[in-house]
Amino acid sequence: MDAGAARRFIETHTIPVHPPLVPEVTLYTATEITPIWEASEAELAAAEVPPPFWAFPWAGGQALARYILDNPELVAGRHVLDFGSGSGLVGIAALKAGARSVEAAEIDPIACTVIGLNAGMNGVELTATPRDVIGEPLAKMANGQGCSVVLVGDMCYERPLAEALTSWLRHEAAQGAAVLMGDAGRNYLPGRGLARLAQFAVPTTLELEDKTVRDATIWRLLP
Fold this sequence. Notes:
The protein is built from six helices and nine strands, in the order αββααβαβαββαβββ. The protein has a seven-stranded mixed sheet. The model has no long low-confidence stretch (mean pLDDT 93). The chain is of the alpha/beta class. It has helices at 3-13, 33-44, 59-70, 89-96, 109-121, 159-174; strands at residues 15-17, 27-29, 79-83, 101-105, 127-129, 149-153, 178-183, 194-203, 213-221. The longest helix has 16 residues, at 159-174. Helix 4 links the parallel strand 3 and strand 4.
């Protein structure tokens, strides 16, 4: 699916919405779950494009975006990596909080398109990096200037991904990077080496989660 088709898909199946925990941000969001998943089966699966996880503001990402906006000193003036960016919510929040730059790592090509659209709606510049960056040195990112902060929202939902991600980021934390994770109780969050920073009650929907309010915790990943 090319960029033009991706934009048409996004504009057809989503509308601009303020996430409940982060009303300062506007995102293209699916307001009815079933229609976009059915559209994905019809249009996206044929193009071998992943499911539209980018179309929803997940609880862990909302919590992390809220935490960054409330604590801007964590990112102000720094180069930031928003890993598994999805809609771009966390990266947009970091830019609004004063980050010098944000690199949004996202392997879904439609998500890469929506990141640009969402950034434009919010008056910031955020460009997606359309590749798997796990294992790449943070020191070589941001055009060689290096990312010193990594933000990860709700990415520990699958064991192989969670293990590869945390192994890489522990190494980077040992080199001095600040790694913050927003997690809403996903199954494969590491059971050790985490420092709890904050917790938020995030309004959600039974169509997306198993409860109407989900607790999401902000963790700092330790080396």
